[in-house]
Amino acid sequence: MNALIDPRQAKVFRFVRCTYAQGEAQLVYAFDDGPELVERIGFPDAPALPPERESAFAAALRLLHLIAGVSYYKAGIPQEIMVEGAPLDADLARFMDTVYAHGLAEFAYRNAVDLRGKIRFPHAAVSAGSAPVLHLARRTLVPIGGGKDSLVSVEMLKSVDEPMTAVWVGDSALIAACAQRTGLPTLNLKRRLAPELFEYNRLGAHNGHIPVTAINSAILICAAILYGFDAIAFSNEASASVATLEYDGQPVNHQWSKSLDFERLLREYTKSHIAADLDYFSLLRPWSELAVTRAFARSTRYDEVFSSCNRNFRIRGEKPADRWCGQCPKCHFVFLALAPFVAKPRLLAIFGRNLLDDAELASGFDALLEYREHKPFECVGEGRESRAAMQALAQRAEWREDALIARFVEEIAPQLDRAGLDLAPLLAPSSQHFLPFRLQGLLHAHG
Question: Where are the domains of the chain?
């Protein structure tokens, strides 16, 4: 890369403009005076935007422009952030400071980059005014991720006849298969990153984890206003709020944009600055990962289509031959979390092998247990959940002879506080959530 376009040498990262026309949003960025980086978001068969929603959609599109910029900003981390066009108000600038600082905490940790003092979104003494009431239709967008969580949400909402549409962002055939299996109306939104970003990465630009759920959430806020939905129900559980580790006095949470803190910030900003009657919440927030797997285990409907394997979900790459690689932390955790609630033959049929009877996988499961190291930088449950699941399996004849369960009993369990190995407390719902009143009964009906 020459100095003109090398993002690592840039002085300024620019939010150039965002536009929408005929079902496509264009989000434009640049480093210094380098080439424009254009990301495209597709809204298929988009209806005409009613005049009374135009200001709300413009506010949502600007929020999306700012949040999605994290994919490009992190390539260079210039000292200055410049937002062209109308200035930001203090609330929006403060929100963006928080999203970038926490959303890039893992990126900074793993790349040994200090972001303190660098992330400062400019703002002016302007007032954004209050968000309008849009009188949106009583129906819900349910994001589908291909894994167990969103499918649990779908079945819970079906039980109360919630009007809803299964929605996903991107081209994953695996997610599309899950969405189709729900039997719901579907909406597949498109996202095309600026191609220059891949070239920057190939030539050595900074790269790493970004808050993808924050970006998808902003896309769905635009979609809710455009298509007319009054709620967005994600499926993030309680353990997403727990930091992966602490470094230099700062929490580093791989799942920060799935956390309760992010949910609170986004729903408050949406209701106060975008659309007063658009609700954003996580249906599974009161539950642990184990409570979610217990609910998932009650039905075999999705056994043949769901996958949580991270190797199957890449921006670029061919469709995997198998839904479960058996090697990544997500495969390990989902297998372990399902095992206390799913009959062993069914679980082995889903994964095609017994991951708990493979001694070579010991280090991977040790990380889930937080035994001698922190948990993986993946969307997995807390160490105490993995330890409780292991302990539960150790009590069962069909599991206790398997290599990793036997190792747990002999080597690891004697070092643990047995009071912390009980499953029951981890299955009780938490009171920390933003579920609308009409849905709160689902916690007990499906718990």
Answer: 7-126+135-282, 308-313+322-427
